[in-house]
Design a protein that fits this description.
The radius of gyration is 18 Å and the shape is globular. The protein is an alpha+beta fold and 177 residues long. Strands 1-2-3-5-4 form a five-stranded antiparallel sheet.
């Protein structure tokens, strides 16, 4: 697959989305640029605007991804639609698609809209600049989305795997044979 057309001011970082039981691995493209909103905020000089965020994105994904490409250290990630005291990257919706009629959560973790955006705030400006440079010059095999996330970070699984008991469970083991 050929990479998408270049977009002025954006670095394009291909990532590999891991395979699922229904779909094989796929290449996904993140578009990155320095964050430059119409209304400046104090963290803008150390922030990166990311377009085409994967639907399962969590802060840990960005930390692991940028570490894999030898980028800088991430302080926090503000996803589209989330409130922040320093950023506004989307209007907050009144109702959420991941809630049932009673307001209970259907999913174990937040899912994003396809193609959504995020602002990644780094510990300093040099970390942001290092990440942009690393993304522009990255020529190795596309990093796998979610690879390198620390075992200490608890990110609930998606799909049917979240309903199954862990493989070490003896009941599950006896049912699978």
């Amino acid at each position: 697959m050929s990479p998408p057309a270049q977009i002025p001011d954006y670095a394009i970082l291909p990532i590999t989305l891991p395979p699922t039981p229904l779909v094989g691995a796929a290449t996904h493209y993140l578009y990155l640029r320095k964050h430059a909103p119409k209304q400046p905020a104090p963290d803008d000089p150390r922030s990166l605007f990311v377009v085409n965020v994967p639907v399962d994105a969590q802060t840990a994904h960005f930390r692991a991804l940028f570490s894999t490409i030898d980028g800088g250290r991430v302080e926090k990630v503000i996803f589209e639609g989330e409130a922040s005291s320093t950023f506004s990257i989307g209007k907050r919706k009144r109702g959420r698609e991941d809630e049932d009629e009673d307001g209970g959560k259907v999913w174990d973790r937040q899912l994003r809209q396809s193609g959504s955006t995020a602002v990644v705030v780094f510990v300093d400006k040099s970390s942001r600049d290092l990440t942009i440079k690393a993304a522009r010059n990255f020529s190795k095999k596309s990093p796998v989305w979610g690879a390198g996330i620390s075992e200490d970070v608890n990110i609930p699984a998606l799909g049917i795997s979240r309903m199954l008991p862990p493989p070490s469970c003896s009941h599950f083991h006896s049912l699978s044979h």
